[in-house]
């Protein structure tokens, strides 16, 4: 049964690669191969070199299709310490403190192997944060699934959630929020995005650069195995005769090792900075990408690595495999010559393996030695900064060209029944079944755990806190990628504002289809423009992000889904605000005008089974104005609660606000029953203690409508112009809370 | 009744952090003659009588593929023990 | 008085405990690494939650082989307070300092949420700040919190009044709703809920303070302070 | 080299939630002839040569008692397989 020894695969010769065009199956195009041969090397690349280029020139490492688009992002701001380009971005929050955040997608690995795909997604984004010198203080997860129909579907979702839970809980970083939506647009391409937030002292910034001739390159962490070798570039490339083991190239997350690696790296950064030149995690395209990027970033030097020194979990690994393996929990450091032993000892004390595997050289060449032979010799910039960039064609998708400009009209005969049906929709229903499996409190700074708008994490020993959220509604983007992109940023800002914060900046995961198809590229391009406009409006620059393309199946892409992860600053713990009504007698207002926001809404989906028509209007200036009103009201301490109004509309916001403290409401309004389900943007539901009424009304003027008051009787009653909603809060709560947990049992 | 013993193990190239942790602990405890540790799962399924050997094989393979083993990462094998079950 | 907080590779609540003692209880506290072999100078030892050694194999099984464990055993034997929380509880059972063991939750999932506990014994050195029968709210956060012991052991636990905290709404399948027990001498407590996460109102509850205040009261009332 | 196969199982009286979950899943999937599922751990230790059988037995028992099995909940047994290891 067991083979005695794995035959080492026979590597194609440079001529065979050229003649058989085997670079195609490794992910390089004819054009790219030509560039390497004629413009970069002026000779035929060998097998290992083709591997290096295929990894480094993949979308994942080079952003070759998205770079021109990403340039459009608004990235400036006086508090931005580091914008896109490093492992993660940094924003100054005063007191010599920086908040560091970034998001990462692990859609494709999770689709293949849900549990491990999710764990390694969490592990990867954590490394991005601590490699900047920041301690991770919170994670958030943004998930998109098809509505589960079979046990298998349920199991798949459970495995994703279990993977996030297993990794985050073990390493001791609280998962404090996220968002989850269900739509069959994600049937073949579920989305698993994880965002991590870290905190650092600004005088301890590290960069991923390897400079200074003679300085050493140190490999830290887990041993290298044959895992995930096809990760970054070639989804279907066969590099081994043995198909069985090809399939097994799954990466397994080891949060325990990562915890040791994290503590050790933070120790080195904080206490041994004199020895450290640069540090970077090994992510996509493992060793080659981390080392080549570090070398290229430093500029002006080369690098040589001796692969025999790389710690290896398996025997007989080729240079190709060693360089492209995506084994987890590994870091790469550049260390000042003469300090190597000091640092190796620090790592040893933490129980972490670390070895010198090479050094920075004169010149510009990136050279690899294996078994004493030079197996690759390429200009370091050719791998990293000089990767090709493509300007793709853009064309409006068919479904946008003839979109009906009438808004959908909900059919409602019994408002209470429609409300109850809505409460049970998985996208609307409580996500407690998910976040209950996450440790939301470890580190004991979580002031607002999942269940309100944004999560709030305080900064210990300071009177300030961070609010954080992830949001995006792909349905809106499907109907209008530009305005939908604006709305994604606006919603995240509303969540942050409702929690008492002022937006600081965003990170993103751009989950889109195939950029080589003009209509799918159009969505990406337009979405980014829309997001960028909103970011500028809210003074919330993009400081980091991640791209996941080719989310299509049978030529049908997912909804364009640019996840927005926003962080805001709360300048005083007494500004922290949650969505729950606090006390009977408090007055309830809806702030912001309600229109007919039905195309792309939850009620359209629920009643017609599809999303269609032209997206409803949106005005960024009005949005900003309303958000500022809320911020002022919170800072003046006028509000008892604030909740942003999003999917499901005003009536959902009202119901959700009653759940936390089991209170009721008695409201009446100038809106029609249908309008209660409208998803018009730029609105909040707030409650105001009676003694603040005059002050509040003066502040908001005509932008708020007084609806009534919070009641103690645990009953929801809302009178609309043409009908009323009337339900026991307990009953509504049970439907809302039970819908997802029943599925995930 | 048949007793089916199913062994599920990680494939060779897959990292098994748990086995590694056990191995490290044994080394620290001074058991230096332990050269390698593998760790897998061991299931015992009690199956009602009435199926032919071929049908039983088919069922067990199906169960393993669907549920007990993760084909991305794990191998399995099993033994059918008819006598044990009688006990 | 001075608390020791043990830290094993993979512990992740040691700073939470440290901060709770230092900032809220306002007593001396020091982290003691697992490699240390002495607990001299400490009045009480706290074993934090987390995933020591990844909780690989069984929760707490590998941690209990650490160099600090003999010192911990001696410390416990001397009658001074030892409190293990969550993973700390698991380590104490694996190390034989508490009876029984902690299995996977019946749901087979990790659970993080607030639970209401009833104080089942307000005489222990960990619970004297509470009233008998008092209801308190503490967060739980564990995958393996399902306390198991055989019937005979349970009888002893009850007879000796070793069950200090019980769940009012059993979240994990524990025998007899057990959330926390002491050893027979009463100086070693293991509990799954996290009192250190409930020491400030802004974090949702300060019901957990009593556990630490009880220890301080116990030490100070004895007038024996090891410094 | 000897290959030692160690089986660690829950004691009879103990309900194992994971085995229970597997059993429930099998029932839901329609495998009604599966009457019971037990789930344990399966270790393979590769041990260097040079110990007598008695010493090896002593060592393995010690390792199991100290680390691999929890006597409160688990039983273990093992087999020494000298031929396998030679391969
Ligand atoms: N996958 C998830 N992980 C953690 N928390 C989640 C997840 N999905 C939703 N939540 C939490 O549930 C609450 C409601 O989420 P959501 O409906 O997206 O809020 P909103 O519409 O206000 O953005 C939030 O507190 C959110 O953080
Ligand atoms: Mg919200």
Automatic annotation (TrEMBL), chain A:
Pfam families: AIRS, AIRS_C, FGAR-AT_linker. It is an enzyme of class 6 (ligase). ATP binds at residues 63, 102, 508, 545. Residues 213-368, 583-719 form the PurM-like C-terminal domain. It is found in: Cytoplasm. Pathway: Purine metabolism; IMP biosynthesis via de novo pathway; 5-amino-1-(5-phospho-D-ribosyl)imidazole from N(2)-formyl-N(1)-(5-phospho-D-ribosyl)glycinamide: step 1/2. It comes from the Bacteria. Mg(2+) 1 binds at residues 104, 546. Keywords: ATP-binding, Cytoplasm, Ligase, Magnesium, Metal-binding, Nucleotide-binding, Purine biosynthesis. Part of the phosphoribosylformylglycinamidine synthase complex involved in the purines biosynthetic pathway. Catalyzes the ATP-dependent conversion of formylglycinamide ribonucleotide (FGAR) and glutamine to yield formylglycinamidine ribonucleotide (FGAM) and glutamate. The FGAM synthase complex is composed of three subunits. PurQ produces an ammonia molecule by converting glutamine to glutamate. PurL transfers the ammonia molecule to FGAR to form FGAM in an ATP-dependent manner. Monomer. Part of the FGAM synthase complex composed of 1 PurL, 1 PurQ and 2 PurS subunits. HAMAP family: PurL_2. This is Phosphoribosylformylglycinamidine synthase subunit PurL. It comes from Lentilactobacillus kisonensis DSM 19906 = JCM 15041. The gene is purL.
Automatic annotation (TrEMBL), chains B, D:
It holds the Pfam family PurS. Pathway: Purine metabolism; IMP biosynthesis via de novo pathway; 5-amino-1-(5-phospho-D-ribosyl)imidazole from N(2)-formyl-N(1)-(5-phospho-D-ribosyl)glycinamide: step 1/2. It is found in: Cytoplasm. Keywords: ATP-binding, Cytoplasm, Ligase, Nucleotide-binding, Purine biosynthesis. It catalyses: N(2)-formyl-N(1)-(5-phospho-beta-D-ribosyl)glycinamide + L-glutamine + ATP + H2O = 2-formamido-N(1)-(5-O-phospho-beta-D-ribosyl)acetamidine + L-glutamate + ADP + phosphate + H(+). InterPro entries: PurS, PurS-like_sf. The keyword Ligase applies. It is an enzyme of class 6 (ligase). Its EC number is 6.3.5.3. GO terms for molecular function: ATP binding; phosphoribosylformylglycinamidine synthase activity. GO terms for biological process: 'de novo' IMP biosynthetic process. It comes from the Bacteria. Coiled coil: none annotated. The keyword Metal-binding does not apply. GO terms for cellular component: cytoplasm. Belongs to the PurS family. Part of the phosphoribosylformylglycinamidine synthase complex involved in the purines biosynthetic pathway. Catalyzes the ATP-dependent conversion of formylglycinamide ribonucleotide (FGAR) and glutamine to yield formylglycinamidine ribonucleotide (FGAM) and glutamate. The FGAM synthase complex is composed of three subunits. PurQ produces an ammonia molecule by converting glutamine to glutamate. PurL transfers the ammonia molecule to FGAR to form FGAM in an ATP-dependent manner. Part of the FGAM synthase complex composed of 1 PurL, 1 PurQ and 2 PurS subunits. PANTHER family: PHOSPHORIBOSYLFORMYLGLYCINAMIDINE SYNTHASE SUBUNIT PURS. This is Phosphoribosylformylglycinamidine synthase subunit PurS.
Automatic annotation (TrEMBL), chain C:
InterPro entries: Class_I_gatase-like, PRibForGlyAmidine_synth_PurQ. This is Phosphoribosylformylglycinamidine synthase subunit PurQ. GO terms for molecular function: ATP binding; glutaminase activity; phosphoribosylformylglycinamidine synthase activity. It comes from the Bacteria. It catalyses: L-glutamine + H2O = L-glutamate + NH4(+); N(2)-formyl-N(1)-(5-phospho-beta-D-ribosyl)glycinamide + L-glutamine + ATP + H2O = 2-formamido-N(1)-(5-O-phospho-beta-D-ribosyl)acetamidine + L-glutamate + ADP + phosphate + H(+). It holds the Pfam family GATase_5. The keyword Transcription does not apply. The keyword Nucleotide-binding applies. Pathway: Purine metabolism; IMP biosynthesis via de novo pathway; 5-amino-1-(5-phospho-D-ribosyl)imidazole from N(2)-formyl-N(1)-(5-phospho-D-ribosyl)glycinamide: step 1/2. Part of the phosphoribosylformylglycinamidine synthase complex involved in the purines biosynthetic pathway. Catalyzes the ATP-dependent conversion of formylglycinamide ribonucleotide (FGAR) and glutamine to yield formylglycinamidine ribonucleotide (FGAM) and glutamate. The FGAM synthase complex is composed of three subunits. PurQ produces an ammonia molecule by converting glutamine to glutamate. PurL transfers the ammonia molecule to FGAR to form FGAM in an ATP-dependent manner. The active site is at 86 (nucleophile), 194, 196. Gene3D superfamilies: 3.40.50.880. One of its GO terms (cellular component) is cytoplasm. Its EC number is 6.3.5.3, 3.5.1.2. It is found in: Cytoplasm. GO terms for biological process: 'de novo' IMP biosynthetic process. Keywords: ATP-binding, Cytoplasm, Glutamine amidotransferase, Hydrolase, Ligase, Nucleotide-binding, Purine biosynthesis. Part of the FGAM synthase complex composed of 1 PurL, 1 PurQ and 2 PurS subunits. Its main location: cytoplasm.
